[in-house]
Amino acid sequence: MTSNEAPPLFVSIGAGTNQVPIIKEARKLGFQLIGVDRNPFAPGLKLCEMKIHESVLNAKEIYSKMMEFLILGDVKGVLSRSYGKSIKTVAHLAKILQQPYLPPEMVNAFINKSEMKRVFVKHGIITPAWRIVTACNANKVAAKMKFPLVAKPLTGHGKRHVSLVYTPEELRHLVTTTARSNTRFLLEEYITGDEIIVIGIVHESIFYTVDISDKIRSPRPYFTDRMHILPSVYLNKIKELTAIGQTITDAFSIESSPLVIELIIDHNDTPFVIEAVPEFGGEFLADIAIPDRTGYNIFEQVIRSITGMKFTPPPLPRVSPVVTVKYLFGGGGTLASFNALKATGRRGILYTRIFKQQGDSLSEPKTNHDRLGVIITRGSTVDETIAKSNRTLTKMDIVLE
Fold first, then answer.
1. Residue 75 to residue 69: CA distance in whole angstroms
2. What is the DSSP track for 165-228?
3. Which class is 129-189 in CATH?
4. Which 8-state DSSP code applies to residue 98?
């Protein structure tokens, strides 16, 4: 690029707090940013040279407004941190821009859990048995499946409205109480085992495993994530898990994208794929845990991949150090006060945050949205990281009323 040429453009679909890491990495790589968000006060917009005040779901309107900026340079990439319907917008714009990403026709297969399951089955990806249940067919489904069962909305995230049903009566109650909104649930066989997350990246249709995390959840019947531990005790299965990631990549025709896979390893050591999503994932894994543990920047490398820049594959995950993401819960009451500690990374304290405000009511941890806060620590062993988390929690002096 000569001094008379404008920098290439990069479009951030969304400019909220979660999108800021993508915006910052794109800026470091020399892009000018077009930020898209209907909230004019979205924090990421402050880092963007150009702004489009539009819903991230309105792909046609966004593209029309993007055209107004093309005199300043060519758009080289478009990306969203958010999951769900916003990836429809990214896929639509990526196709127009001839950017490697995910085919628009495959987006619904990721968003809709039943469509995702059908793709899994078609391509031989092992996944728990499942059926669609409504108020009309609840009795029939209950007679054909073995309880307990996991009930999930067909779309959604954050474990919202995910529940474990133990009897046909509980199932009928679930579907009849939601019948007025014509809600359909995906009913899935409950697999007993260890839950893990494979965090990966796809470049030129090849899947790379970046890291693997063990996931500890709250006691049933809820599905709230309580802790993530990296590396996983199943790190020795990395070749098998990477092969599963490649099969998913091929099944959904992914060219370049982050890819997060949730699995359960049963007592026979068989990995069952629960879900897969073309996103960076939450839980502070891509933002804090993985960069600290491995030195690999997933955000930077995905941007490089979709914009045609030099891409660096991730290194093989190491056994050490250990990073633990521990969530805090209130269990009812009101948040009266707390000490907001600033983590600097010294002594292995990587990050602390209280999600709630003083005076907020706290509920039982039924979903990931009910969590009070998080503490992220690094150490040589799991016990060491948990001990550091506990000491930090004491210093935070959280008072509930």
1. 9
2. E-SHHHHHHHHHHTGGGT--EEEEEPPPEEEEEEEEEEETTEEEEEEEEEEEEPSTT---EEEE
3. alpha beta
4. T
Residue bearing tokens 């309880």: 147
User: 């600033």: which residue's tokens?
Assistant: 342
Kindly give, in sequence order, each residue whose CB lies less than 8 Å from that of residue 31, ignoring residues fewer than 6 positions away: 7, 8, 9, 10, 76, 77, 303, 307
CATH of 9-108, one of 3.40.50.20, 3.90.226.10, 1.10.260.40, 3.40.190.290: 3.40.50.20
Question: Residues of CATH 3.30.470.20 domain(s) within the chain?
Answer: 193-319, 321-401
- Cα 52 from Cα 38, distance rounded (Å): 8
CA distance 382 to 388: 10
Q: Which two tokens stand for residue 184?
A: 């359909």
CB 57 within 8 A of CB 86: yes
- pLDDT one-digit tens code per residue, 33-72: 999 999 999 999 999 999 999 999 999 999 998 888 765 5
Place of tokens 């067909």: 154
Over residues 166-175, the pLDDT tens digits come to 888 888 887 7
- Condensed to tens digits (0 to 9), the pLDDT of residues 302-313 reads 999 999 999 999
Domain 321-401 class in CATH = alpha beta
Q: Tell me which CATH homologous superfamily contains domain 193-319.
A: ATP-grasp fold, B domain (3.30.470.20)
